């Protein structure tokens, strides 16, 4: 974990939050590229949403949250809707790449 800057003002806090948001967006864009590849690789639209995999991902992020000093509930609350949005994106990609299967 990187060292956290001690903030004197709300301007300092907001600057750091905005910086982190930019980093998170870059990481989410990278994640989306892998999800798009999953749509290309999978051979059945019925395996786009795999409940066991969703629970595995949530379990992993809750463990990671704990390791980094973040409440696991915050990670779970952020990840579940994000995973749902990525599943929707993957299904859209699947339909775009393999329209004949629909």
At the fold tier of CATH, the topology name is Chorismate Mutase Domain, subunit A
Radius of gyration (Å): 17 Å
Name the shape in a single word: elongated
Strand coverage percent: under 5%
Task: Please give the alpha-carbon distance between the first and last residues.
Answer: 45 Å
Helix content: over 70%
CATH architecture: Up-down Bundle
Q: Strand pairing plus helix content: what structural class?
A: mainly alpha
- Tally the helices: 3
Name the poorly predicted regions. none
> How many individual β-strands?
0
Question: How do the helices and strands follow one another from N- to C-terminus?
Answer: HHH
Largest sheet: none
User: What is the subunit organization of this protein?
Assistant: single chain
EC number: 5.4.99.5
Keywords: Isomerase, Lyase, Pyruvate
GO molecular function, one term: carbon-oxygen lyase activity
Organism: Aestuariispira insulae
Summarize the model shown.
This protein is mainly α and 102 residues long.
Question: What is the topological layout?
Answer:
Elements (H helix, E strand, L loop, with lengths): L9 H32 L9 H17 L4 H26 L5
Helix pairs in contact: 1-3, 2-3
